[in-house]
Amino acid sequence: MKEPMRTLAYVCPACRQPVIVERSAFQLAASASRLPCPCGKSALRVEPDGTHARLCVPCLACGRDHTVACSARALLEEKVLAFSCAATGLDCCYVGEEGPVFAAMKRLEGATDKLGPKDGERGAFLDELVMHEVLSELKEIAQRDGISCTCGSHRWKLQVNYSSVDLFCADCGAAMRIPAATADDIDDICCKTRLLIRGGEGR
Ligand SMILES: [Zn+2]
Ligand SMILES: [Zn+2]
Ligand SMILES: [Zn+2]
Question: What is the distance in A from the centroid of ligand 1 to the CA of 13?
Fold first, then answer.
């Protein structure tokens, strides 16, 4: 007889990746389990305790660990168990059958995508690929001298932000923000041959 398997899932607060692991019901019931994220910076802990089980869940939403409890029967047999963050109300952990846990994680990822990134833990850009594409499009437009200001200047400065690029007119200081967050932003700039910074009128 095949051993019944349980799927456990949470989102790592350190690297923000979903961590989904499989353990047999027997493993979970027999001894404490530590289920680490591959990045090594967080781990879900499961401790059986007689008729109950305690879970210690790293929480992406609030950054703390939550200790939650459920019956051993629910841990080992429930189709899908959801544990949520006491501070934000967002789900932070699922235990159950593979299919329902994957489906629940998909929904959760949609929600956590909207959480602001935490300072110091985010990458240089919201989306490296989008930023790279937007910058290379900008470079092409610049090479054709396609960037100018309504004040008549063709001299400009560039500032690269987390999810956008700012162009500044070097003469009048007017600014123009170019979003660099999503694939749509690449499409938008791809179809432009020139960029006009809205600054002062000619002097
Ligand atoms: Zn991680
Ligand atoms: Zn939390
Ligand atoms: Zn200007």
Answer: 7
* Ligand 1 centroid from CA 37, angstroms: 5
User: Ligand 2 centroid vs 101 CA: distance in angstroms?
Assistant: 19
38 CA distance to ligand 1 middle (Å): 6
Q: What is the pLDDT of residues 100-153, one digit of tens each?
A: 999 999 888 877 776 655 544 556 787 888 999 999 999 999 999 999 999 999
pLDDT value for 119: 43
Specify the pLDDT at position 183: 87
Under 8 Å CB-to-CB from 90, ≥6 apart: which residues?
Answer: 61, 84, 108, 111, 112
- Ligand having the closest approach to the CA of 64: 2
Distance CA 48, CA 169 (A): 64
Chain length of the chain: 203
Measured in Å, residue 168 CA sits from the centre of ligand 3 at 8
DSSP E strand boundaries for 30-142: 33-36, 43-49, 52-58, 65-71, 80-84, 91-96
Residues sharing a CB contact under 8 Å with residue 173, sequence separation 6 or more, in sequence order: 199
Put simply, whether the predicted model's pTM sits higher than 0.90 gets the answer no
- Which residues are registered as beta bridge partners of 196? 148
111: CA distance to ligand 3 center in Å?
41
Main-chain dihedrals φ then ψ at residue 130, nearest 5 degrees: -60, -45
